[in-house]
Structure prediction request, 502 residues.
Amino acid sequence: MTVRNSVTPRAATDVSNYDIETDVLVVGYGAAGASAAFEAARTGARVRVLDRAGGAGGASAMSGGEIYLGGGTPIQLACGFDDTPEDMAAFLTAALGPSADPAKIAEYSSGSVEHFQWLVDRGVPFKPSMWDAPTWVPPTDDGLMWLGENSWPFTELAKPAPRGHRPTAKDFGGNLLMECLAGAAEKVGAETLFDTYVTRLVVADDRTVVGAVARRYGREITIRALRGVVLTTGGFVDNDAMLADHAPQLLGHTKVSAGTDDGSGIRMAQALGASVRHMGAGQVGMSLIPGLAARGMVVNARGQRFMNEDTYPGRIGQAALYRQNMGGAWAGGDTAVWVIVDETGFEDVPAPQRWGVQPTHVAETPEELERLAGLPAGSLVDTIARYNEFAVHGTDLDLHKAQRWLRPLTPPLAAIDVKAGIRPPSESGDRRGTGASVFTLGGLHTDLDGHVLDHDGYPIGGLFAAGRAANGLHGFGYISGTSLGDGTFFGRRAGTAAARNL
Ligand SMILES: Cc1cc2nc3c(=O)[nH]c(=O)nc-3n(C[C@H](O)[C@H](O)[C@H](O)COP(=O)(O)OP(=O)(O)OC[C@H]3O[C@@H](n4cnc5c(N)ncnc54)[C@H](O)[C@@H]3O)c2cc1C
Prediction:
C-alpha cells in the first residue's frame, strides 16, 4: 500500500491554541482565491489568504488571461456582435458536455455581463477590437476572439458570437489579470501569508470546518476561521498518483500548471466526505498551430481526419487524446497526429505566428508524404483526394469545416508531427514532447454559492471551493477562458457566501 501525505482532518478539540484567527480563510491565491478574498473582504469580514508559493499567482498568473464572457458585453457590442445569455448557455452546454451542471451554466451566462463589468471595475483592461482567426493566443492586444462558436456543430445549436475576452496585453495576459485581482483584494483589506502550505482542515464535532493546519518553514501553524474556509488550491495535474487513479490519459503529458497543482485541497475536502465530479476530464492543448490546422487538415495514425480543423483547438486535442489514442504514458506509445498543409497554407500564416514550427516532412506528392510520415498505404492519399473534392465543391461533407477554410491542398505538401512541439527548440534543437499539454477539470462538487457538497448532496458546514479545486462549469469538455471564467465568477460567490456564514 502506498501511503500518501495525510490529509486526515484535525479535531478542533485537539487544537489548544490558534496562531492566526480570521473570519474567512482562503487557501490558494490564484484567480479564484483573489476573487473570493475580494468579495469576502468587502463585506467587512476579516480575510486571510494563504499560499504555498512566495506570492500570489498560481497558474492564473502564467495563463493567457482569456476569460469566457458573453451575453452582450460592451466589447462584443463594440465589435459588432449581438449576443444573448441564452445563446451563450446553449453553446456552453454543447461545448462543455452534456453532464456539465445546467444551473451553473445558466447562472454564469446570465451573470456574464455583470462579471465583465466587475473585472473592469477591478482594473482589468479589455480593448474593443477583434482577432478573427483560429489561434491559441492572438499576437496582438485585441480584446475579443472566437473560441469555436463559429464552427460546427455549434453553428447549428446557437447563434455564433465570439466570447473569448482578453485583458489588454501582448501575448499572455494572466499576469496582468492577477495583478489587478490581488491588488483589489488587498486594497479592501484581505491579508496574506505566503510560503504556507495547508495540509489539513480543522473540524468541529458536527463536521463543520472551523480552520486549517499548515506548514510554514518546517513549523506547524494553526488558523481559526470563524465563518468558513474557501479552497482555491487549483487542480491535480502535478499529482501523478491522483492522475493514475482518476485521469490516466493525462499521465506523461506536459503539465499546464505552476507546479503546485498537487490536488491537496481536493484531498483535504474528500477526507471530510466531499464528493467530486468529472475527475477524468482534462483540457488538452495539442501542440499545433491552429492557423495551420485550419488551412490544412489534422490526421490520425491511420491518415484519417477526425475533427473539423477550424474549431477551438482544445477540442481537437481532446479528440486526439481520448479518441485517437495519442501518445502519453497511458497509451504507452508514440501514436502520431499530423497536421497536413500545403505551401500556400503554410506561408499564409505569418512566420511569428508559427512559433518556430517547421514541417517534419515535405513532399511533391501525397504518396511521397504518406510514405515519409509512415502512414498506411493509400490512407493519406485517399484523405487528401476526398478533402480536395469537398474543397472544390465548397462543402466539407465529413466534418463540416467552414467554407472559409476549405481550399484544395496542392503540392508541395508538408506533414508536421505534433510531437515536434510548439515551443522554441532547446539548444540541442530537440523539440519533441508528447504533443499535448494538459490540466485537470475535475474537482469538488459545489453548489452555486461554492458550498462543498457531501455524498448525500448536503453542504459541508464552513467549507467552500472554487477554481480548478472544484469542478465548476465543466462536464467533460473545455473551452479556453472557462477556467479563469468560472474560477473568478464562482470564486466571488464562494467568498460572499463564506463571509455571510455567521
Ligand atoms: C500557460 C497557461 C495558459 C493558460 N491560459 C488560460 C487562459 O487563457 N484562459 C483560461 O481560462 N485558463 C487558462 N489556463 C488555465 C488556468 O490558468 C488555470 O486553470 C486557472 O488559473 C486555475 O485557477 P485557480 O485559481 O483555480 O488556481 P491557481 O491559479 O493555480 O491558484 C492556486 C494557488 O493555490 C496554491 N496552493 C495549492 N495548494 C495549496 C496548499 N495546500 N496550501 C496553500 N496554497 C496552495 C498554489 O500555490 C496556487 O498559487 C492556462 C494555464 C497555463 C499554465
Remarks:
- The mean pLDDT is 95.
- The chain has three domains: 10-63+174-282+440-475+485-500, 67-100+119-165, 288-434.
- The chain is about 30% helix and 20% strand.
- The domain at 288-434 is CATH 3.90.700.10 (Flavocytochrome C3; Chain A, domain 1).
